[in-house]
Amino acid sequence: MNIYGKLGVPSVINAATTLTAIGGTLMPDEVRRAMDEAARSFVDMHELHAAAGKHLAKLTRNEAAYVTSGCAAGLVLGILGARNGGDPAMITEYPGHPEAPYEVIMHTSHRIPYDPAVGLAGAIIRQIGNNKQTFDWELESAISDNTAAVLYVANDTLPGSALALERVVAIAHKHQVPVIVDAAAQLPPMDNLWRFTRDLGADAAVFSGGKNLRGPQASGLMVGSSAFIEAARQNGSPHQRWARALKAGKEEIAGLVAAVERFLTLDHDGTNRDSLRVVEAWHAAFTDRQGISAVIEPTNSAGQPLPRLRIAIDDPERAANVLTSLENSTPRVVVLPHTHNGQARGFWITPELLSGDEAELVHAAVDAALRSA
Ligand SMILES: *Cc1c(COP(=O)(O)O)cnc(C)c1O
Question: What is the distance between the alpha carbons of residues 38 and 239, in angstroms, rounded to a whole number?
Fold first, then answer.
């Protein structure tokens, strides 16, 4: 019996996406081996961070890199570093001092459930624009002596009203304000590892290690300029400072290094073709049913080029029943529900994280759920 069985918590099949709430991702052999090796001896953590950062920088064609305990943790560390420049005397001061408030600028259309990371760094979010439009002058006029950074969320499925990243970088840099890109789920495509930073000029981009990189769930990868990353690093563990709570251990560092090495060797186009075949088979199976339509979509909820199938159910009550039935399936198949104005409309399924015969198990569970409701 495995650890989940011993604890009485059934494992689930992930036909949704890299959702942290169901464990995010699964680590391939190379990653688990690296973590296991790392767990067997002590190492100087300052030296390990520096060496892993140097190696990851080279692999990702960036000036510098740093392993964090997640993307959200990387945002906190990046914002703290932007605020205090890694200066030890400034780091010891409480970052969110009420008499010295400081701000992080975000597009309104970039407000996401992960942006409390800004508050955890002691900063206040200053919004620019709205969901329909944003103007250059709004960014210009939002920048003040209190501005620590601009936080830019890279995700093509957000309302497309933000300024282009190049524009944001040009304006922010004119005022010596750094730009941090939240790129948590923006891999693949692989070239995003250097596109936001080396190509488009952002000071840092932060990726989740525990999403499609398939690294440890509690890991993150920050890449960018040497100065920005050094300042962020000064705030984190193993230093005994404010952000010590956001610790990446030696196992996470080793696992993430192995995950990035592996990711760079993958044939993403080939994997995508295989995934598309699975999605097409599901489509063929579910499309000709009364009150149901199935649509193949080329990208997932983070805008990544990973195909999925949307199953739309005309009757909201039936849609809700189908979702309940899937929740009660054995093994439980987790899908991404589609709701609109508070009503169930259907769901998405994706082969993104399935292995072995799970695509067939998903097929069977969805088939049974659609028939039962
Ligand atoms: C998942 C996600 C995060 C959080 O990433 P963690 O690695 O779990 O900390 C932040 N921002 C976005 C856009 C995400 O999708």
Answer: 20
pTM: 0.97
Q: Which residue shows structure tokens 């000709």?
A: 288
35-56 per-position pLDDT tens digit: 999 999 999 999 999 999 999 9
Give the tens place of pLDDT for each residue, 43-102. Answer: 999 999 999 999 999 999 999 999 999 999 999 999 999 999 999 999 988 787 777 789
DSSP secondary structure string, 47-82?
HHHHHHHHHHHHHTTSSEEEEESSHHHHHHHHHHHH
Residue 290 C-alpha to ligand 1 middle, in angstroms? 38
Lining residues, ligand 1, CB within 6 Å: 20, 70-72, 112, 114, 153, 155, 182, 184-185, 208, 210, 220, 302
Q: Which atom of ligand 1 is nearest to the CA of 73?
A: 9
Closest C-alpha to ligand 1, atom 5 = 71
SS3 category, 305: coil
Which tokens hold the place of 251? 């196992």
